[in-house]
Write a structure and sequence with these properties.
mainly beta, two-stranded antiparallel sheet, 4 strands, globular
Length: 85
């Protein structure tokens, strides 16, 4: 669990581990995004090519992150949120 404030350009990042698999769900992160003075957006971000994506009733392909390999065994997950402010 964490709290991140974006920079002036709206970009933000966080470092974490890949979540574990648990019964009935695919791997995902819970996120909440909000611009000042706007409604809170609550959603989940998913990993591409996860076998459980196809059987998870909450999974949404449009909320899949793009993964970038860093070449050192670590990866970056990228997702662009677009808020109407």
């Amino acid at each position: 669990r964490g709290h991140v404030i974006s920079g002036a350009n709206g970009a933000f990042s966080f470092r974490t581990i890949v979540p574990a698999v648990y019964p009935g769900r695919t791997r995902h992160y819970h996120v909440k995004v909000q611009a000042p003075g706007t409604r809170l957006l609550t959603t989940q971000l998913y990993f591409p090519n996860e076998p459980r994506n196809q059987t998870d009733g909450i999974y949404r392909a449009e909320c899949e992150m793009a993964l970038q390999d860093n070449g050192d065994g670590s990866k970056n997950g990228v997702f662009n949120f677009v808020l109407n402010i």
